[in-house]
Amino acid sequence: MDKKSSPVADGRTEAVGLWKTFATSVVAIVIGLACLLQATAGGNAFTTETLRRTEVADAPSQVPDLAIRDAAGHRSTLRELLAGGERVWIVDFVYTRCQTVCTTLGSVFQQLQQQIRQRGLEGRVGLLSVSFDPANDTAESLRAYLDRMQMDPAIWHLVSLDSPLDRRELLDAFGIMVIPAPLGEFEHNAALHLVTGRGMLVRILDYDDAALALETALAAVP
Amino acid sequence: MNRIGWQRSSSWIGLALCGLGCALSVPPWRSLIEQSMVWHMVIQMPMLVGGGWLLAGSGIQAPKMQRFADWNRFGLTGFIASQLIAAYWMLPLAIDRAVVLPRTDVFKLVSLLACGALLKASFGRSPAVLQLFFVGYAVSMLSAAGVFLASTDRRLCNAYSLDSQWNAGSSVVALGVALGCAWAWRLVRDTRRAQARPQARH
Known about the structure:
Chain A is an alpha+beta fold. Chain A has helices at about 5-40, 50-60, 80, 100-120, 140-150, 165-175, 210-220; strands at about 60, 65-70, 75, 90-95, 125-130, 155-160, 180, 185-190, 190-195, 200-205. Chain B has one domain (about 5-200). The chains are: A alpha+beta, B mainly alpha.
Protein backbone atom coordinates (compact mmCIF):
# COMPACT_ATOMS: atom_id res chain seq x y z
CA MET A 1 0.00 0.00 0.00
CA ASP A 2 1.31 3.40 -0.91
CA LYS A 3 1.90 5.78 1.92
CA LYS A 4 0.46 9.11 0.97
CA SER A 5 1.57 12.03 3.09
CA SER A 6 -1.12 14.38 4.26
CA PRO A 7 -0.49 18.12 4.67
CA VAL A 8 -0.97 17.70 8.45
CA ALA A 9 1.65 14.93 8.65
CA ASP A 10 4.01 17.00 6.48
CA GLY A 11 3.55 19.97 8.75
CA ARG A 12 4.28 17.84 11.80
CA THR A 13 7.45 16.36 10.25
CA GLU A 14 8.54 19.88 9.34
CA ALA A 15 7.97 21.12 12.89
CA VAL A 16 9.80 18.13 14.42
CA GLY A 17 12.72 18.77 12.04
CA LEU A 18 12.87 22.43 13.04
CA TRP A 19 12.84 21.57 16.73
CA LYS A 20 15.60 19.00 16.25
CA THR A 21 17.70 21.56 14.37
CA PHE A 22 17.01 24.21 16.99
CA ALA A 23 17.99 21.85 19.83
CA THR A 24 21.17 20.68 18.08
CA SER A 25 22.16 24.27 17.27
CA VAL A 26 21.73 25.27 20.91
CA VAL A 27 23.86 22.28 21.99
CA ALA A 28 26.54 23.25 19.42
CA ILE A 29 26.56 26.86 20.69
CA VAL A 30 26.81 25.77 24.33
CA ILE A 31 29.63 23.27 23.67
CA GLY A 32 31.46 25.70 21.35
CA LEU A 33 31.27 28.63 23.76
CA ALA A 34 32.30 26.40 26.68
CA CYS A 35 35.39 25.32 24.71
CA LEU A 36 36.22 28.92 23.77
CA LEU A 37 35.77 30.13 27.37
CA GLN A 38 37.82 27.24 28.74
CA ALA A 39 40.64 27.87 26.27
CA THR A 40 40.76 31.61 26.95
CA ALA A 41 40.57 31.51 30.77
CA GLY A 42 36.99 32.77 30.73
CA GLY A 43 37.53 35.16 27.85
CA ASN A 44 40.47 36.88 29.56
CA ALA A 45 43.38 35.58 27.47
CA PHE A 46 43.57 35.25 23.72
CA THR A 47 47.33 34.87 23.42
CA THR A 48 49.67 32.36 25.08
CA GLU A 49 51.50 35.30 26.64
CA THR A 50 48.41 36.73 28.36
CA LEU A 51 47.36 33.24 29.43
CA ARG A 52 50.70 32.49 31.10
CA ARG A 53 50.59 35.86 32.88
CA THR A 54 47.01 35.24 34.09
CA GLU A 55 47.88 31.71 35.24
CA VAL A 56 50.96 32.83 37.17
CA ALA A 57 49.08 35.73 38.83
CA ASP A 58 46.33 33.29 39.88
CA ALA A 59 48.60 30.47 40.96
CA PRO A 60 52.31 31.30 41.56
CA SER A 61 54.63 28.45 40.63
CA GLN A 62 57.94 27.18 41.98
CA VAL A 63 60.92 27.77 39.71
CA PRO A 64 63.18 24.74 39.09
CA ASP A 65 66.44 24.42 40.99
CA LEU A 66 68.81 24.30 38.02
CA ALA A 67 72.60 24.46 38.06
CA ILE A 68 73.91 27.89 37.01
CA ARG A 69 77.25 29.63 36.60
CA ASP A 70 78.18 33.31 36.60
CA ALA A 71 80.71 35.42 34.69
CA ALA A 72 83.44 34.56 37.22
CA GLY A 73 82.79 30.86 36.63
CA HIS A 74 81.22 30.27 40.08
CA ARG A 75 78.70 27.46 40.10
CA SER A 76 75.56 27.36 42.23
CA THR A 77 71.85 26.73 41.72
CA LEU A 78 69.06 29.08 40.74
CA ARG A 79 67.26 28.75 44.07
CA GLU A 80 70.45 29.27 46.07
CA LEU A 81 71.01 32.53 44.23
CA LEU A 82 67.41 33.67 44.68
CA ALA A 83 67.46 32.80 48.40
CA GLY A 84 70.34 35.24 49.07
CA GLY A 85 68.71 37.87 51.32
CA GLU A 86 65.02 38.69 51.65
CA ARG A 87 64.84 40.08 48.17
CA VAL A 88 62.26 39.88 45.44
CA TRP A 89 63.89 39.45 42.06
CA ILE A 90 62.98 40.91 38.71
CA VAL A 91 64.16 38.27 36.27
CA ASP A 92 64.60 38.45 32.50
CA PHE A 93 65.91 35.99 29.94
CA VAL A 94 68.57 36.93 27.44
CA TYR A 95 71.39 35.68 25.25
CA THR A 96 74.42 37.89 25.06
CA ARG A 97 74.71 38.04 21.24
CA CYS A 98 71.20 39.50 21.03
CA GLN A 99 70.85 42.73 19.07
CA THR A 100 67.07 43.11 19.28
CA VAL A 101 64.70 42.69 22.21
CA CYS A 102 67.43 41.87 24.77
CA THR A 103 69.01 45.26 24.07
CA THR A 104 65.69 46.88 25.00
CA LEU A 105 65.46 44.62 28.05
CA GLY A 106 69.04 45.61 28.92
CA SER A 107 68.22 49.31 28.94
CA VAL A 108 65.04 48.65 30.98
CA PHE A 109 67.22 46.82 33.53
CA GLN A 110 69.74 49.69 33.51
CA GLN A 111 66.96 52.13 34.39
CA LEU A 112 65.70 49.79 37.11
CA GLN A 113 69.24 49.45 38.49
CA GLN A 114 69.51 53.23 38.67
CA GLN A 115 66.17 53.57 40.47
CA ILE A 116 67.03 50.80 42.94
CA ARG A 117 70.33 52.52 43.72
CA GLN A 118 68.77 56.00 44.03
CA ARG A 119 66.00 54.79 46.33
CA GLY A 120 68.32 52.55 48.36
CA LEU A 121 66.34 49.42 47.62
CA GLU A 122 69.36 47.11 47.14
CA GLY A 123 68.34 44.91 50.05
CA ARG A 124 64.75 44.52 48.86
CA VAL A 125 64.78 44.18 45.10
CA GLY A 126 67.36 42.40 42.95
CA LEU A 127 67.77 42.13 39.20
CA LEU A 128 68.66 38.83 37.55
CA SER A 129 69.39 38.17 33.87
CA VAL A 130 69.47 34.50 32.92
CA SER A 131 71.03 33.39 29.64
CA PHE A 132 69.12 30.61 27.92
CA ASP A 133 71.98 30.04 25.48
CA PRO A 134 74.61 28.27 27.63
CA ALA A 135 76.32 26.76 24.59
CA ASN A 136 77.40 30.19 23.32
CA ASP A 137 77.34 32.21 26.51
CA THR A 138 80.68 31.29 28.00
CA ALA A 139 82.15 33.06 31.05
CA GLU A 140 83.94 35.38 28.64
CA SER A 141 80.75 36.40 26.78
CA LEU A 142 79.01 36.90 30.10
CA ARG A 143 81.82 39.18 31.28
CA ALA A 144 81.63 41.23 28.08
CA TYR A 145 77.83 41.61 28.46
CA LEU A 146 78.24 42.52 32.12
CA ASP A 147 80.68 45.30 31.21
CA ARG A 148 78.57 46.52 28.32
CA MET A 149 75.50 46.82 30.55
CA GLN A 150 77.50 48.36 33.41
CA MET A 151 75.98 45.96 35.87
CA ASP A 152 76.32 46.73 39.57
CA PRO A 153 77.03 43.33 41.19
CA ALA A 154 75.22 44.41 44.37
CA ILE A 155 71.98 44.82 42.40
CA TRP A 156 72.14 43.04 39.07
CA HIS A 157 73.28 39.45 38.58
CA LEU A 158 73.98 37.70 35.32
CA VAL A 159 74.06 33.92 35.10
CA SER A 160 73.89 31.22 32.49
CA LEU A 161 72.68 27.66 32.78
CA ASP A 162 75.53 25.32 33.61
CA SER A 163 74.22 22.62 31.30
CA PRO A 164 72.56 23.12 27.91
CA LEU A 165 70.41 20.09 28.79
CA ASP A 166 68.49 22.17 31.37
CA ARG A 167 67.42 24.74 28.77
CA ARG A 168 64.04 23.15 28.03
CA GLU A 169 63.15 22.86 31.73
CA LEU A 170 64.09 26.49 32.40
CA LEU A 171 62.10 27.84 29.44
CA ASP A 172 59.06 25.66 30.19
CA ALA A 173 59.01 26.67 33.85
CA PHE A 174 58.81 30.35 32.89
CA GLY A 175 56.70 29.84 29.75
CA ILE A 176 59.34 31.21 27.38
CA MET A 177 59.23 30.15 23.75
CA VAL A 178 62.46 30.69 21.81
CA ILE A 179 62.38 30.51 18.03
CA PRO A 180 65.27 30.81 15.60
CA ALA A 181 65.51 34.13 13.73
CA PRO A 182 67.70 35.19 10.76
CA LEU A 183 71.45 35.83 11.26
CA GLY A 184 71.71 33.24 14.02
CA GLU A 185 69.55 35.28 16.37
CA PHE A 186 66.59 34.11 18.44
CA GLU A 187 63.16 35.59 18.91
CA HIS A 188 61.47 35.09 22.27
CA ASN A 189 58.65 36.43 24.38
CA ALA A 190 60.32 39.01 26.58
CA ALA A 191 58.88 40.12 29.90
CA LEU A 192 59.74 40.96 33.51
CA HIS A 193 59.33 37.97 35.83
CA LEU A 194 58.88 38.60 39.56
CA VAL A 195 60.37 35.79 41.65
CA THR A 196 60.45 35.73 45.46
CA GLY A 197 63.46 34.68 47.54
CA ARG A 198 61.69 31.36 48.07
CA GLY A 199 61.78 30.70 44.36
CA MET A 200 58.11 31.39 43.64
CA LEU A 201 57.28 32.99 40.29
CA VAL A 202 54.52 35.38 41.37
CA ARG A 203 53.92 37.81 38.49
CA ILE A 204 54.89 38.40 34.87
CA LEU A 205 54.74 41.97 33.58
CA ASP A 206 55.42 43.78 30.33
CA TYR A 207 58.97 45.02 29.95
CA ASP A 208 57.70 48.52 29.19
CA ASP A 209 55.99 48.46 32.62
CA ALA A 210 59.27 48.71 34.54
CA ALA A 211 57.90 51.18 37.09
CA LEU A 212 54.94 48.90 37.82
CA ALA A 213 57.28 45.90 38.08
CA LEU A 214 59.38 47.71 40.70
CA GLU A 215 56.32 48.70 42.77
CA THR A 216 54.84 45.20 42.50
CA ALA A 217 58.19 43.70 43.54
CA LEU A 218 58.34 46.04 46.56
CA ALA A 219 54.80 45.06 47.53
CA ALA A 220 55.80 41.38 47.37
CA VAL A 221 58.80 41.78 49.70
CA PRO A 222 58.05 39.88 52.91
CA MET B 1 32.51 17.42 -17.12
CA ASN B 2 29.37 15.54 -16.17
CA ARG B 3 28.12 15.32 -12.60
CA ILE B 4 29.45 11.82 -11.82
CA GLY B 5 32.82 12.64 -13.37
CA TRP B 6 33.06 15.84 -11.29
CA GLN B 7 32.06 13.99 -8.11
CA ARG B 8 34.70 11.35 -8.71
CA SER B 9 37.48 13.84 -9.37
CA SER B 10 36.36 16.09 -6.50
CA SER B 11 36.66 13.18 -4.06
CA TRP B 12 40.18 12.52 -5.35
CA ILE B 13 41.07 16.20 -4.94
CA GLY B 14 39.47 16.10 -1.48
CA LEU B 15 41.52 13.06 -0.54
CA ALA B 16 44.69 14.75 -1.82
CA LEU B 17 43.94 17.94 0.16
CA CYS B 18 43.29 15.90 3.34
CA GLY B 19 46.47 13.92 2.79
CA LEU B 20 48.59 17.02 2.13
CA GLY B 21 46.97 18.91 5.02
CA CYS B 22 47.71 16.06 7.43
CA ALA B 23 51.22 15.54 6.00
CA LEU B 24 52.05 19.13 6.97
CA SER B 25 51.66 18.09 10.61
CA VAL B 26 54.22 15.31 10.29
CA PRO B 27 58.03 15.66 9.98
CA PRO B 28 59.83 16.63 7.81
CA TRP B 29 57.04 18.85 6.38
CA ARG B 30 56.02 19.90 9.88
CA SER B 31 58.90 22.39 9.93
CA LEU B 32 56.94 24.43 7.35
CA ILE B 33 54.03 25.06 9.70
CA GLU B 34 56.35 25.44 12.68
CA GLN B 35 58.35 28.18 11.03
CA SER B 36 55.75 30.02 9.03
CA MET B 37 52.39 31.27 10.21
CA VAL B 38 51.35 31.60 6.56
CA TRP B 39 51.89 27.87 5.98
CA HIS B 40 49.99 27.08 9.16
CA MET B 41 47.05 29.47 8.99
CA VAL B 42 46.65 30.24 5.31
CA ILE B 43 47.77 27.02 3.64
CA GLN B 44 47.29 24.06 5.98
CA MET B 45 44.08 25.13 7.74
CA PRO B 46 42.12 26.05 4.55
CA MET B 47 43.50 22.89 2.91
CA LEU B 48 41.93 20.78 5.66
CA VAL B 49 38.61 22.63 5.47
CA GLY B 50 38.64 22.27 1.67
CA GLY B 51 39.52 18.59 1.93
CA GLY B 52 36.69 18.00 4.42
CA TRP B 53 34.28 19.87 2.12
CA LEU B 54 35.18 17.88 -1.01
CA LEU B 55 35.23 14.51 0.74
CA ALA B 56 31.87 15.20 2.37
CA GLY B 57 30.59 16.25 -1.05
CA SER B 58 31.15 12.76 -2.38
CA GLY B 59 29.35 11.07 0.51
CA ILE B 60 26.66 13.57 1.36
CA GLN B 61 24.06 12.23 -1.04
CA ALA B 62 24.28 8.76 0.48
CA PRO B 63 20.95 7.66 2.02
CA LYS B 64 22.64 7.25 5.41
CA MET B 65 23.54 10.94 5.42
CA GLN B 66 19.94 11.95 4.69
CA ARG B 67 19.01 10.64 8.13
CA PHE B 68 20.81 13.62 9.65
CA ALA B 69 18.97 16.14 7.50
CA ASP B 70 16.34 16.75 10.20
CA TRP B 71 19.06 17.85 12.62
CA ASN B 72 20.45 20.37 10.18
CA ARG B 73 17.44 22.13 8.62
CA PHE B 74 18.52 25.08 6.47
CA GLY B 75 22.08 24.05 7.33
CA LEU B 76 21.81 25.99 10.59
CA THR B 77 23.51 23.51 12.94
CA GLY B 78 26.39 22.93 10.52
CA PHE B 79 26.94 26.65 9.99
CA ILE B 80 26.98 27.38 13.72
CA ALA B 81 29.32 24.47 14.54
CA SER B 82 31.74 25.26 11.71
CA GLN B 83 31.78 28.95 12.63
CA LEU B 84 32.70 28.06 16.24
CA ILE B 85 35.46 25.71 15.06
CA ALA B 86 36.83 28.44 12.79
CA ALA B 87 36.66 31.00 15.63
CA TYR B 88 38.63 28.65 17.90
CA TRP B 89 41.42 28.27 15.34
CA MET B 90 41.68 32.04 14.94
CA LEU B 91 42.81 32.32 18.57
CA PRO B 92 46.57 32.99 18.71
CA LEU B 93 46.89 30.73 21.75
CA ALA B 94 45.19 27.86 19.91
CA ILE B 95 47.62 28.30 17.00
CA ASP B 96 50.56 28.25 19.46
CA ARG B 97 49.24 25.12 21.13
CA ALA B 98 48.89 23.29 17.83
CA VAL B 99 52.58 24.02 17.16
CA VAL B 100 53.75 22.88 20.59
CA LEU B 101 51.38 20.09 21.62
CA PRO B 102 50.92 17.10 19.26
CA ARG B 103 47.52 16.20 20.74
CA THR B 104 46.21 19.71 20.03
CA ASP B 105 47.52 19.37 16.49
CA VAL B 106 45.59 16.13 16.03
CA PHE B 107 42.47 17.89 17.36
CA LYS B 108 43.12 20.65 14.82
CA LEU B 109 43.27 18.18 11.92
CA VAL B 110 40.06 16.42 12.96
CA SER B 111 38.10 19.57 13.80
CA LEU B 112 39.03 21.42 10.60
CA LEU B 113 38.17 18.42 8.40
CA ALA B 114 34.85 18.26 10.28
CA CYS B 115 34.43 22.01 9.74
CA GLY B 116 34.71 21.53 5.96
CA ALA B 117 32.30 18.58 6.00
CA LEU B 118 29.76 20.53 8.09
CA LEU B 119 29.96 23.49 5.72
CA LYS B 120 29.35 21.24 2.72
CA ALA B 121 26.40 19.58 4.46
CA SER B 122 24.95 23.01 5.24
CA PHE B 123 25.45 24.95 2.02
CA GLY B 124 23.23 22.67 -0.04
CA ARG B 125 20.33 23.09 2.36
CA SER B 126 20.37 26.75 3.18
CA PRO B 127 18.66 29.66 1.47
CA ALA B 128 20.94 32.34 0.02
CA VAL B 129 20.02 34.82 2.75
CA LEU B 130 21.23 32.48 5.51
CA GLN B 131 24.39 31.79 3.50
CA LEU B 132 24.91 35.52 3.18
CA PHE B 133 24.67 35.90 6.96
CA PHE B 134 27.26 33.21 7.71
CA VAL B 135 29.58 33.96 4.79
CA GLY B 136 29.41 37.65 5.65
CA TYR B 137 30.28 36.84 9.25
CA ALA B 138 33.18 34.59 8.22
CA VAL B 139 34.58 37.16 5.77
CA SER B 140 34.39 39.96 8.33
CA MET B 141 35.94 37.72 11.03
CA LEU B 142 38.82 36.78 8.71
CA SER B 143 39.35 40.36 7.55
CA ALA B 144 39.28 41.83 11.05
CA ALA B 145 41.63 39.16 12.41
CA GLY B 146 43.91 39.54 9.37
CA VAL B 147 44.11 43.33 9.64
CA PHE B 148 44.88 43.04 13.35
CA LEU B 149 47.60 40.43 12.77
CA ALA B 150 49.13 42.53 10.01
CA SER B 151 49.03 45.87 11.80
CA THR B 152 49.92 45.23 15.44
CA ASP B 153 53.47 45.57 16.73
CA ARG B 154 52.86 42.91 19.38
CA ARG B 155 53.76 39.31 18.71
CA LEU B 156 50.45 37.54 19.20
CA CYS B 157 51.81 34.03 18.75
CA ASN B 158 54.86 33.05 20.75
CA ALA B 159 55.61 30.41 18.12
CA TYR B 160 56.05 32.88 15.24
CA SER B 161 58.15 35.92 14.50
CA LEU B 162 56.53 39.31 13.97
CA ASP B 163 57.41 39.18 10.25
CA SER B 164 55.67 35.85 9.87
CA GLN B 165 52.63 37.24 11.71
CA TRP B 166 52.41 40.29 9.43
CA ASN B 167 52.61 38.10 6.33
CA ALA B 168 49.96 35.78 7.72
CA GLY B 169 47.73 38.77 8.53
CA SER B 170 47.65 40.11 4.98
CA SER B 171 47.21 36.60 3.59
CA VAL B 172 44.26 35.98 5.91
CA VAL B 173 42.60 39.18 4.62
CA ALA B 174 43.18 37.98 1.04
CA LEU B 175 41.73 34.58 1.95
CA GLY B 176 38.62 36.19 3.44
CA VAL B 177 38.07 38.37 0.37
CA ALA B 178 38.65 35.37 -1.95
CA LEU B 179 36.10 33.31 -0.02
CA GLY B 180 33.54 36.11 -0.23
CA CYS B 181 34.11 36.47 -4.00
CA ALA B 182 33.90 32.68 -4.53
CA TRP B 183 30.57 32.58 -2.70
CA ALA B 184 29.17 35.53 -4.67
CA TRP B 185 30.30 33.95 -7.96
CA ARG B 186 28.61 30.65 -7.01
CA LEU B 187 25.41 32.46 -6.10
CA VAL B 188 25.33 34.33 -9.42
CA ARG B 189 26.08 31.11 -11.34
CA ASP B 190 23.34 29.13 -9.53
CA THR B 191 20.81 31.93 -10.00
CA ARG B 192 21.56 32.11 -13.74
CA ARG B 193 21.26 28.34 -14.07
CA ALA B 194 17.92 28.37 -12.26
CA GLN B 195 16.65 31.13 -14.58
CA ALA B 196 17.87 29.31 -17.68
CA ARG B 197 16.07 26.10 -16.70
CA PRO B 198 12.63 25.72 -18.34
CA GLN B 199 9.80 26.44 -15.91
CA ALA B 200 8.37 23.21 -14.51
CA ARG B 201 5.09 24.72 -13.41
CA HIS B 202 2.78 26.89 -15.41
